[in-house]
């Protein structure tokens, strides 16, 4: 059982002062094995905070990030899954699933995690899964109205991943979960 | 009996001994030995002894101890509080302190402040609801400090910070502290460094308590208090400040801006204008930190007002999206002082999108104009240009407000600049991104198949040129990745039903890629291989879908 926290688009301090208190109390150091962050933290303080939750932190560059040296995309393997990470402002039209699927094919990953739209999405297609953890602070977005703060926790266990999405709605944290199984022959050539 | 007989006799003895060490010790004993209720009841008598003691006795320490004891006594149970009121403890202590400070002319300033800190602690414990008492204590402090230069003594400044922090901790609400008229006056006597320390303490208190400051007046008062962070005091920039510390400082101001809010749009607009007025005095170093949160705060207000016309006949409604966009325009313009063209470009694009949602075509067009001007004139770094042009294309793709002429002008500019990026692969990617400008999936969206194809063909030409360049410069072709990306775009529009993109066109592209990949000249690239493989898998999957999609894909052969 490997826990991966996926979050992004915090936009601190440009669009939000801090993570919601209820999220902060849930995110405790030492419980998570990896953190993948779609970008737009935006400042070093947030990077340091995430690093304190888990030393294995992966961040891709958002267009407002103070540190412009984050990579545009990142791939990593966790258990049997290949994960891809990209902020998403580079993929036009923004939020378009077909265009994101193309990136997924290009990175050759089972799970693609992107952000930018601030809207949670978990979408399965023939090539794998696309996840958007939304905005962890519920930051303003020109693309999505009424953003609820959200983040995703993935539980990776051999060929199965359970995606838990945590959303703060009207002051309460609501959890939902989605199951994905990787077929062993998914990457076999024709 | 204590009151009538014991205490007066003891005090007489203490005064008469005229030995400063003994007096100090004995007063100390009296305070420690006898119970607090006794002290309360004999307060006047006890306090009257102080001026009679030798001038070298450290009265302030003894007085502080007395007040601390009484403070603790008050905190021990609520039942004793009425007693304090009955004996008019505050008035007596306050006046006694005043007398002591007056009498001991040589008392160092830290001594006087310490006394006031003790008195304030006492007041906050015993009379928390009497803001006038609290203000009185601060006022006495101001009086003591006035006429002198700004404090240099670090012990004294520490005590003043303690003095000013006490009401914050007690009330957990900056709004209460804002009501204390002498609060800002005390702050004015701090040196610049300590002033800023105190300002940060204030902001931290607000953030910790999630206090919302909800009127323009309160915002004005608050920004007066924290002015040390907002602008350079005395007109001279603080060069000694460490860059990290400065960033932290300004980031805390940025966070603070999100705590200034009112549901009522008129009041919220007033708040925005107040904040704007203050941050524009901050100078180029501070603007990149303070402008973005104000911009987003304003955009949130615009969104709330969306749909409301505001042009109701007979009503003066200052808070309209149009008005706010004007303010936004001028605010973002200030970033040119820094200069921060990349940030300003992003903010202009955000405003353009918001204006689009408000059906304000000329306003949206103006924001795009500003963004393009910045791109043309200020964004020189090639990597920054790539991001900037993608942001422009991405935003433009979402615009539905533009009429044909305006849209054409902007898309023409976007595609033009895309083709002029420095590196060929970047050109290629930006140009095929532009294909989406001519095809929007909405009901009324533009669906210009020809121009889509033109973009894709142009991207292909650029990819070819990139290959040839690689041939010449490196002796072998570069990677075929760009071709595979373009193929994927062809598939995208093929599926959307662009009549210009036929299965034979796609077949041709697949053959081209196959040939390139098998050519001896081409450097082997495993990631390109994997990309092509997954693309072909996708095509196969679509073919096997059956139905309309399967039919569409039927003519395409992959092996």
Automatic annotation (TrEMBL), chain A:
<feature type="domain" description="Calcineurin-like phosphoesterase">
    <location>
        <begin position="4"/>
        <end position="157"/>
    </location>
</feature>
<dbReference type="GO" id="GO:0015031">
    <property type="term" value="P:protein transport"/>
</dbReference>
<keyword id="KW-0813">Transport</keyword>
<dbReference type="GO" id="GO:0031410">
    <property type="term" value="C:cytoplasmic vesicle"/>
</dbReference>
<dbReference type="GO" id="GO:0042147">
    <property type="term" value="P:retrograde transport, endosome to Golgi"/>
</dbReference>
<dbReference type="InterPro" id="IPR024654">
    <property type="entry name" value="Calcineurin-like_PHP_lpxH"/>
</dbReference>
<keyword id="KW-0653">Protein transport</keyword>
<dbReference type="Pfam" id="PF12850">
    <property type="entry name" value="Metallophos_2"/>
</dbReference>
<dbReference type="InterPro" id="IPR029052">
    <property type="entry name" value="Metallo-depent_PP-like"/>
</dbReference>
<dbReference type="GO" id="GO:0005829">
    <property type="term" value="C:cytosol"/>
</dbReference>
<comment type="similarity">
    <text>Belongs to the VPS29 family.</text>
</comment>
<dbReference type="GO" id="GO:0030904">
    <property type="term" value="C:retromer complex"/>
</dbReference>
<dbReference type="InterPro" id="IPR028661">
    <property type="entry name" value="Vps29"/>
</dbReference>
<protein>
    <recommendedName>
        <fullName>Vacuolar protein sorting-associated protein 29</fullName>
    </recommendedName>
</protein>
<dbReference type="InterPro" id="IPR000979">
    <property type="entry name" value="Phosphodiesterase_MJ0936/Vps29"/>
</dbReference>
From TrEMBL, chain B:
<dbReference type="GO" id="GO:0030906">
    <property type="term" value="C:retromer, cargo-selective complex"/>
</dbReference>
<keyword id="KW-0653">Protein transport</keyword>
<keyword id="KW-0333">Golgi apparatus</keyword>
<keyword id="KW-0967">Endosome</keyword>
<dbReference type="InterPro" id="IPR042491">
    <property type="entry name" value="Vps35_C"/>
</dbReference>
<dbReference type="GO" id="GO:0006886">
    <property type="term" value="P:intracellular protein transport"/>
</dbReference>
<dbReference type="GO" id="GO:0005829">
    <property type="term" value="C:cytosol"/>
</dbReference>
<dbReference type="Pfam" id="PF03635">
    <property type="entry name" value="Vps35"/>
</dbReference>
<protein>
    <submittedName>
        <fullName>Vacuolar protein sorting-associated protein 35B isoform X2</fullName>
    </submittedName>
</protein>
<dbReference type="GO" id="GO:0010008">
    <property type="term" value="C:endosome membrane"/>
</dbReference>
<comment type="similarity">
    <text>Belongs to the VPS35 family.</text>
</comment>
<keyword id="KW-0963">Cytoplasm</keyword>
<dbReference type="InterPro" id="IPR005378">
    <property type="entry name" value="Vps35"/>
</dbReference>
<dbReference type="GO" id="GO:0005770">
    <property type="term" value="C:late endosome"/>
</dbReference>
<dbReference type="GO" id="GO:0042147">
    <property type="term" value="P:retrograde transport, endosome to Golgi"/>
</dbReference>
<keyword id="KW-0813">Transport</keyword>
<keyword id="KW-0472">Membrane</keyword>
<dbReference type="GO" id="GO:0005794">
    <property type="term" value="C:Golgi apparatus"/>
</dbReference>
């Amino acid at each position: 059982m490997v826990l991966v926290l996926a979050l992004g688009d915090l936009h601190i301090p440009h669009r939000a002062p801090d993570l919601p208190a209820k999220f902060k109390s849930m995110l405790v150091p030492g419980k998570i094995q990896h953190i993948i962050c779609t970008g737009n933290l935006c400042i070093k303080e947030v990077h340091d905070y995430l690093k304190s939750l888990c030393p294995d932190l992966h961040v891709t560059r958002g267009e407002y990030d103070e540190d412009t040296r984050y990579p545009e995309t990142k791939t990593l393997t966790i258990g049997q899954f290949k994960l891809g990470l990209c902020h998403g402002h580079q993929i036009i039209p923004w939020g378009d699933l077909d265009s994101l699927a193309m990136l997924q094919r290009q990175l050759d990953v089972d799970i693609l995690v992107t952000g930018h739209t601030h809207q949670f999405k978990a979408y399965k297609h023939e090539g794998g899964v696309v996840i958007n953890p939304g905005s962890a602070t519920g930051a303003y977005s020109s693309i999505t109205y009424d953003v609820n703060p959200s983040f995703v926790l993935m539980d990776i266990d051999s060929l199965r991943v359970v995606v838990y999405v945590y959303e703060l709605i009207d002051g309460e944290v609501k959890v939902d979960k989605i199951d994905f199984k990787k077929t062993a022959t998914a990457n076999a050539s024709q | 009996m204590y009151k009538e007989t014991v205490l007066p006799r003891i005090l007489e003895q203490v005064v008469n001994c005229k030995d400063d060490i003994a007096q100090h010790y004995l007063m100390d004993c009296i305070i420690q030995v006898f119970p607090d209720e006794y002290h309360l009841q004999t307060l006047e008598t006890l306090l009257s002894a102080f001026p009679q003691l030798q001038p070298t006795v450290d009265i302030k320490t003894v007085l502080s101890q007395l007040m601390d004891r009484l403070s603790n006594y008050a905190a021990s149970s609520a039942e004793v509080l009425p007693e304090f009121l009955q004996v008019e403890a505050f008035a007596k202590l306050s006046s006694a302190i005043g007398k002591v400070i007056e009498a001991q002319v040589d008392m160092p300033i830290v001594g006087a402040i310490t006394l006031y800190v003790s008195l304030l602690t006492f007041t906050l414990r015993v009379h928390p609801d009497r803001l006038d008492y609290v203000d009185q204590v601060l006022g006495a402090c101001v009086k003591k400090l006035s006429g002198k230069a700004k404090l240099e003594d670090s012990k004294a400044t520490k005590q003043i910070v303690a003095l000013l922090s006490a009401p914050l901790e007690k009330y957990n609400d900056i709004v209460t502290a804002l009501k204390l008229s002498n609060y800002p006056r005390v702050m004015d006597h701090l040196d610049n460094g300590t002033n800023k320390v105190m300002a940060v303490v204030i902001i931290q208190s607000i953030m910790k308590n999630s206090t919302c400051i909800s009127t323009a007046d309160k915002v004005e008062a608050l920004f007066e208090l924290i002015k040390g962070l907002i602008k350079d005091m005395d007109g001279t920039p603080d060069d000694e400040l460490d860059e990290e510390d400065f960033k932290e400082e300004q980031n805390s101001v940025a966070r603070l801006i999100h705590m200034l809010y009112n549901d009522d749009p008129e009041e919220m607009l007033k708040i925005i204008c107040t904040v704007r007025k203050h941050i524009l005095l901050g100078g180029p170093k501070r603007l990149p930190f303070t402008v973005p949160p104000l911009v987003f705060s304003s955009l949130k207000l615009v969104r709330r007002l969306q749909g409301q016309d505001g042009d109701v006949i007979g009503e003066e409604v200052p808070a309209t999206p149009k008005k706010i966009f004007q303010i936004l325009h001028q605010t973002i313009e200030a970033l040119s002082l820094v200069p921060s063209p990349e940030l300003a470009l992003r903010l202009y694009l955000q405003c353009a999108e918001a204006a689009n949602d408000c059906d304000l075509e000329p306003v949206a067009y103006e924001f795009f104009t500003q963004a393009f001007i910045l791109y043309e004139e200020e964004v020189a770094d090639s990597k920054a240009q790539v991001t900037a042009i993608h942001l422009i294309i991405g935003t433009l793709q979402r615009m539905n407000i533009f009429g044909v002429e305006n849209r054409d002008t902007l898309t023409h500019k976007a595609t033009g600049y895309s083709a002029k990026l420095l590196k060929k692969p970047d050109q290629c990617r930006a140009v095929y991104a532009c294909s989406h400008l001519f095809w929007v999936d909405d009901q009324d969206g533009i669906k210009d198949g020809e121009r889509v194809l033109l973009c894709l063909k142009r991207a292909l030409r650029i990819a070819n040129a990139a290959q040839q360049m690689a041939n010449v410069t490196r002796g072998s072709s570069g990677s075929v990745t760009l071709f595979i990306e373009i193929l994927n775009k062809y598939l995208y529009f093929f599926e959307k039903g662009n009549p210009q993109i036929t299965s034979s066109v796609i077949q041709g592209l697949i053959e081209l890629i196959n040939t390139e990949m098998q050519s001896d000249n081409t450097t082997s690239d495993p990631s390109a291989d994997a990309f092509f493989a997954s693309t072909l898998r996708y095509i196969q999957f679509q073919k096997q879908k059956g139905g309309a999609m399967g039919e569409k894909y039927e003519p395409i052969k992959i092996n």
